[in-house]
DNA sequence: GTTGAGCGTT
């Protein structure tokens, strides 16, 4: 049976922890178990997951019983392609409680010691937890995308100025127009998210509460439909387009 | 459905 990660840490004082990075987001402990078990006795495998989405973060922890097995696993599984991705296997530098570990083995206990290598205390779980997650996620998913987009736009602008007009702008515009004239949308995110709530301040990265309640972001789409069980006696034939115009006009086009 | 630097939980 492989119930790694389901329960708490069994025992890490007598095991060697390996950090597996660069694994796919769909790789589970059950997938890593046969790979690591071939090179030694795997005591436990744990894959940190996001508490919001519940998906893997892209790395896992594999605990071996002996150091030689762990070393062998590192030497053999480091760079191994799993699920189409190269995973990096190395010894863990920090323990679950920020204790310093050498070669996957804990050399310094955290019992009674406050402010370890990373100054992490088990008492501040919630705030630092979410903050840490948000912080580390921003640089991997959002920031990177933003920077990439900005860089791309800048590059395009640079090309636009340098080459005056050669291929880029006209081609892009033509392609967009030739593709679909009526379905022209500036951004695919604004269309579904909130067109009236888009903030003109790009310096603000993002609001954390946006992920907390995504349903409340667009309540006017489903609420009025379900909250009005009898629209015939309450509201007149509502037209989607003229819902905001108080003056009904006969001319349509 | 997506993403890619890093160090962990019943």
Automatic annotation (TrEMBL):
Record's protein name = RRM domain-containing protein
| Residues of the RRM domain | 16-94
Task: Name the SUPFAM superfamilies for this protein.
Answer: RNA-binding domain, RBD
Pfam family membership, one? RRM_1
GO terms of molecular function = RNA binding
State the organism named in the record: Anisodus tanguticus
PANTHER family assigned: GLYCINE-RICH RNA-BINDING PROTEIN RZ1A, SC35-LIKE SPLICING FACTOR
The alphabetized UniProt keywords are: mRNA processing, mRNA splicing, Nucleus, RNA-binding
For region Disordered, the annotated ranges are 109-253
Q: Record's SMART domains?
A: RRM
CDD domains membership? RRM_SRSF2_SRSF8 (cd12311)
**What InterPro entries would the database entry show?**
Nucleotide-bd_a/b_plait_sf, RBD_domain_sf, RNA-bind/splicing_reg, RRM_dom
- Which residue stretches does the UniProt record annotate as biased composition, category Low complexity? 187-199, 227-239
